[in-house]
């Protein structure tokens, strides 16, 4: 690669805008799908008691229901339920 | 000193692409997040700029690229070849998408003119982006906001709590530092 001048550097910086944040997050959560992230979220949407238990004490609710408590999965769920 | 030892001292380490891939394969939970973060702009730009996909198709391609990458990472023969591998995967999926859409078009499938040139430019852009990661957080933030995120001086000033009158000079100084970093890299590559 030839050494770009500052104007070219500026153009090259402009060439890589960020991908939409939800796309990036979804791709980052791919490993969590294997741990059942989608299943837990679907169940929480359908089962209000389970959803409230997750919001009250996420890790205890997962343990009580026999779900994996892998830290990345817990963190992803915490983010999902943070606004509730 | 190993990268683990340097990290243990609380210092920031930028892993090479190969090291990052090896960590992903070893099951390091943060490594996959970093890999997606490192290449997300690149994959997105190939889909949007080189192949001119619409937002909906680009999103499908984007997710498919990372799903396949995650699934097939263990098949990569050379860990350092992750970037060209992702580029090729993205390219192929974009072409599949265009070809599928072409059934509905009267003039059929046509790969966008100049796609390869655009990808070559994006390769250069990614190298610049990697050099940017070495600069101070302030420089990274201000250059990324101004050039990649297209934010105004006013928005940057408010976000970073800086007088907007100083933004232009800071951008100029950071660009000079970035150029110096690029020159250092080029000199190292030429010497090796």
The number of helices of chain A is: 7
Percent of sequence in beta strands of chain A: under 5%
Structural class of chain A: mainly alpha
Distance between the termini of chain A: 50 Å
The percentage of residues in β strands of chain B lies in under 5%
According to CATH, the homologous superfamily of the largest domain in chain B is: RNA polymerase sigma factor, region 2, helix turn helix motif
Q: Could you describe the largest sheet of chain B, including whether it forms a barrel?
A: none
Task: Give the proportion of residues in helices of chain A.
Answer: 55-70%
Largest Cβ-defined interface: A-B, 26 and 40 residues
Keywords:
heterodimer; A: 84 residues; mainly alpha; 7 helices; 69% helix; B: 192 residues; Rna Polymerase Sigma Factor, Chain: A; Arc Repressor Mutant, subunit A; globular
Put the structure in a nutshell.
Chain A is mainly alpha-helical and 84 residues long. Chain A is built from 7 helices and no strands.
Task: Compile the SSE list and pairings.
The complex is a heterodimer of chains A (84) and B (192).
Chain A: H1 6-14, H2 21-28, H3 30-33, H4 37-46, H5 48-56, H6 58-64, H7 71-81
Helix pairs in contact in A: 4-5, 5-6
Chain B: H1 3-8, H2 17-25, H3 29-50, H4 55-72, H5 82-102, H6 115-132, H7 137-148, H8 153-160, H9 167-191
